[in-house]
Amino acid sequence: MRSLEVKNRTSAEEIKSLRLITAIKTPYLPDGRFDLEAYDRLMNIQIMNGAEGVIVGGTTGEGHLMSWDEHIMLIGHTINCFGESVKVIGNTGSNSTREAIHATEQGFAVGMHAALHINPYYGKTSLEGLVSHFEAVLSMGPTIIYNVPSRTGQDIPPAVIHTIAQSANMAGVKECMGNGRIKEYTDKGVVVWSGNDDQCHDARWGYGATGVISVTSNLAPGLMRELMLGGKNTSLNAKLLPLIEWLFCEPNPIALNTALAQLGVVRPIFRLPYVPLPLARRVEFVNIVKELGRENIVGDGDVQVLDDDDFILVGRY
User: Which of 168, 189, 108, 175 is nearest to 146 (CA)?
Assistant: First the structure.
């Protein structure tokens, strides 16, 4: 299938309006396969609490630990089960342009509403190469560009974004370089989502961001919706910051995976190389939940302090 043959019924304008997008967690069974029953529960929680979009197979969803078959299957499953209720944005980016093209063709073929694309990491390219890489996938459908130099080792500078922003399929940028960069874009009409939960309140209400692509909303979707849709609220932002800081005490998604297991929402199973947070951090999470109010955090049962032996680490998956 050539990219010009891929049809998509969602416009970039529809994607530009999304304010709360959750980078959804991928849960696992003891053998390392996807736990689709738990995944569906997580998706329903997001929809019931007002998330407007989800990123499937992003960093938080551990797309880098999936085969492409798994990746496209999960995008297709999400569209088939939830596509009428929430916008599904598939992370089909890669540091290989060939892989990015192929995965994006497949993602749109199974119905995803938009694609998330990162710049080539590790085998970095020139600025002209970045433009060519993104242009190769932008023709296929609505696209969010993801700039996270702490993971890729290379910043996507504004000159590149302004060049590719001329494409009708360019929905906007998930930006992790801070609110100064966000304002630079929004002042020139580029749609931006904050990629930093700890800065997203100010990004939204002070720097022109449309919203956030959030990790924290996996745990507190209702509060994050209020933070993005309810107007400036410095007290709520301050209330959420201890949870946000805890979530990023180690590289994401280590803390999130630990938290959801302690809440009983997913099984305590990790695909290596991720391992759970140490016991002291697990105890700290219980106290954070109590401070925020158990009713504001996903799940129905009491939050538990799991023992080391409760976790299953899977190396073959």
Answer: 175
pLDDT of 295-306, one tens digit each? 999 999 999 999
The amino acid at 59: T
Catalytic position from the list 146, 185, 207, 274: 146
Provide the annotated binding site for pyruvate.
Answer: 60, 213
Please report, for the chain, the start and end positions of each structural domain, with discontinuous segments joined by +.
Answer: 12-232
Q: What is the C-alpha radius of gyration for the chain, rounded to an integer number of angstroms?
A: 19
> Which CATH code for domain 12-232?
3.20.20.70
> N- to C-terminal Cα distance for the chain?
29
Q: Answer whether 209's CB lies under 8 Å from 194's CB.
A: yes
Give me 191's structure tokens. Answer: 């749609």
Is-catalytic flag, 122?
A: no
Find residue 144's DSSP bridge partners. 116, 172
174 has catalytic annotation = yes
Task: Determine the Cα–Cα distance for residues 156 and 131; give it in Å rounded to an integer.
Answer: 10
Yes or no: say if 131 and 160 are a contact pair by the CB < 8 Å rule: yes
- Residues 288, 254: Cα–Cα separation, whole Å: 17
- Bridge partners of 23, per DSSP, are 55
**CA geometry: angle 201, 297, 313, nearest 5 deg:** 105
Residue with tokens 């009409």: 189
Residue 282 pLDDT greater than 70, yes or no: yes
Q: Are 253 and 215 in contact (CB under 8 A)?
A: yes
Q: What is the pLDDT of residue 45?
A: 98
Tokens of 85: 């209720």
- pTM equals 0.96
The single residue of 25, 28, 39, 174 carrying the catalytic annotation is 174
Which residues participate in the annotated binding site? 60, 213
Tokens for 244, please give them: 């946000």
What DSSP string describes 14-75? HHHT--EEEE----B-TTSSB-HHHHHHHHHHHHHTT--EEEESSTTTTGGGS-HHHHHHHH
